Amino acid sequence: MTLVDYEALATAAQNARNLAYAPYSHFQVGAAVLTASGKIFCGGNIENAAYPLTICAERVALYSAYAAGEREILALAVVTDTDDVASPCGACRQVMIELSPQCGVLLLNMQGHQRLTTPHELLPHSFGATQLDEAHR
């Protein structure tokens, strides 16, 4: 079993937050994922004036890992500048369930508050491939 250096992952997420493009909300979010091969992929949220085209930091990081051929995500860190840790949106939770269901999820803020959780804790009773398989029986 690979040990996860959550401190290094948190630092990578904090650095990614600085690269976020958030001219409308001014709510910068950074994320970093650690893959089984030891690589870290980062992402910041990227906003668009056509709001539905905006993408969250978590999905940028996860999609970057997948685009590079990585399929085993060990951990994900998400950082915000909020009083408490912020929880990922529903779309990001669904993507986590699909792409990294067994990973550890570290939620943290810039003041150092942290919460370690999992995709299944964030999205209990999730929709997935099992339901699609049932639909085709």
TrEMBL record:
Family listed: Belongs to the cytidine and deoxycytidylate deaminase family.
Record: active site: 58 (proton donor)
A biological-process GO annotation: nucleobase-containing small molecule metabolic process
Record-listed E.C. numbers: 3.5.4.5
Residues reported in the UniProt entry to bind Zn(2+): 56, 89, 92
Cofactor(s) required for function per UniProt: Zn(2+)
Protein name in UniProt: Cytidine deaminase
PROSITE patterns named in the record: CYT_DCMP_DEAMINASES_1 (PS00903), CYT_DCMP_DEAMINASES_2 (PS51747)
Protein task: This enzyme scavenges exogenous and endogenous cytidine and 2'-deoxycytidine for UMP synthesis.
Residue ranges annotated for the CMP/dCMP-type deaminase domain, each copy included: 4-130
Reactions catalysed, as given in the entry: 2'-deoxycytidine + H2O + H(+) = 2'-deoxyuridine + NH4(+); cytidine + H2O + H(+) = uridine + NH4(+)
Alphabetical UniProt keywords: Hydrolase, Metal-binding, Zinc
CDD domains named among the record's database cross-references: cytidine_deaminase
UniProt entry tagged with the keyword Zinc: yes
UniProt cross-references to Pfam families, sorted A to Z: dCMP_cyt_deam_1 (PF00383)
Record lineage: Bacteria, Bacillati, Chloroflexota, Chloroflexia, Chloroflexales
Record-level Gene Ontology MF annotations: cytidine deaminase activity; identical protein binding; zinc ion binding
